[in-house]
Design brief:
337 residues, alpha/beta, Alpha-Beta Plaits, TIM Barrel, 2 domains, eight-stranded parallel beta barrel, four-stranded antiparallel beta sheet, 19% strand, elongated, binds phosphoenolpyruvate, binds manganese (II) ion
């Protein structure tokens, strides 16, 4: 249930509604907008009479939420969520580019990546230190050493860091080195991990699972929000269909659909979306045109010798050529980059 407070509702009125909802067993989540405060009541008794709250002082309107996700729904924060990390805002007027190698491989490699990424105008460097590889014999990542190397390279160029957390035991380590914790497609429905991430106060980028519906993605976001961590960025990274030409089928329509259903920022990963570097630039351009709040892309100084995902990693020259194109498209749809 969502209780939308009147413009100028007093703190005492908000507290009275909150107390009334708690009395009936609801967990109350508060969203403070520029005009209205919205109280999200989760749980509580099934046949709760919304009329009881409707007539209380300071209340503008009360809505029952029919979707299975509540806090992730657009109604909870109609104005949209902006995830702010230092001077970077994800979900605001700018399209935020996060780029870098699939995996952190060495000091030299990640330092070069930081230069490619920063010179192109991206704000965040990506790189996996713990890799969810399909084969146990493939490169599994450098672990803490990799995180340390990436943090140093990022700090040298004033970049933020995003890196994947694969299980709950890694949360403290990732939180120490990374500004955004990435949940990979394979872990979108790892509910224990999601629950543990709900108790920290650190931005999380949640990728759509390869066979997950949009509703399932939003329900996974709900797990994280239900513990009070509202700093979530959603990510379309391609889903598995019967098409085999591309690694996955990049579902660009998920971008406007999510913007309609949810207040959370939505970014797109065209690299895993198609799995081939010749197709990544066109999909990146399309994602920005479709309203993506950011892009997550793989770029490597020497993709042919990358230890993971070389085929979908852009060459530095491709990345440098793509960034101004994305800027032009962003401004055509009322955004900056
Ligand atoms: C990655 O970003 O390198 C990655 C493993 O992504 P996904 O979880 O989307 O496969
Ligand atoms: Mn990858």
């Amino acid at each position: 249930m969502l209780v939308v407070m009147q413009q100028g509702a007093t703190e005492a009125q908000i507290q009275r509604i909150t107390a009334r909802l708690i009395e009936d067993g609801f967990n109350v989540h508060r969203s403070t907008g520029a005009i209205h405060t919205v109280l999200g009541g989760v749980g509580g008794i099934d046949d709760f009479d919304t009329g009881v709250v409707e007539v209380m002082e300071g209340v503008k309107e009360v809505h029952r939420i029919v979707s299975p996700y509540k806090l992730a729904s657009r109604g909870f924060r109609p104005q949209g969520t902006v995830v702010k990390i230092k001077d970077v805002e994800i979900g605001g007027g700018s399209v935020v580019v996060m780029a870098g190698p699939c995996s952190v491989e060495s000091h030299d490699q990640i330092e070069r990546a930081a230069d490619i990424v920063a010179d192109g105008g991206a704000k965040v460097i990506r790189g996996g230190a713990f890799k969810p590889r399909s084969s146990p014999y493939s490169f599994q990542g450098l672990g803490e050493v990799g995180l340390k190397l990436m943090r140093e390279a990022a700090d040298r160029r004033g970049l933020l860091v995003i890196s994947e957390v694969m299980d709950s035991t890694q949360i403290p380590l990732l939180s120490a080195y990374s500004d955004i914790l990435q949940i990979g497609a394979r872990n979108m429905q790892n509910y224990n991990l999601l629950r543990d991430l709900s108790h920290i106060r650190k931005p999380v980028l949640l990728k759509r699972g390869i066979a997950a519906t949009i509703e399932e993605l939003l329900l996974s976001a709900e797990y994280i929000m239900s513990g009070g961590n509202y700093e979530i960025i959603l990510c379309e990274r391609g889903i598995r269909t019967y098409e085999t030409y591309t690694r996955n089928t990049f579902d660009i329509s998920a971008i406007p659909v999510i913007h309609k259903l949810s207040h959370l920022p939505m970014v797109a990963d065209p690299s895993h979306g198609v799995g081939r570097r010749d197709l990544v630039p066109s999909m990146a351009r399309a994602a920005v045109a479709a309203g993506a709040d950011g892009l997550l892309m793989e770029v490597h100084h020497d993709p042919d010798h990358a230890l993971s995902d070389g085929a979908q990693s852009l060459f530095p020259g491709q990345f440098a050529e793509l960034m101004p194109q994305l800027r032009t498209i962003a401004s055509a749809v009322g955004r900056s980059l």
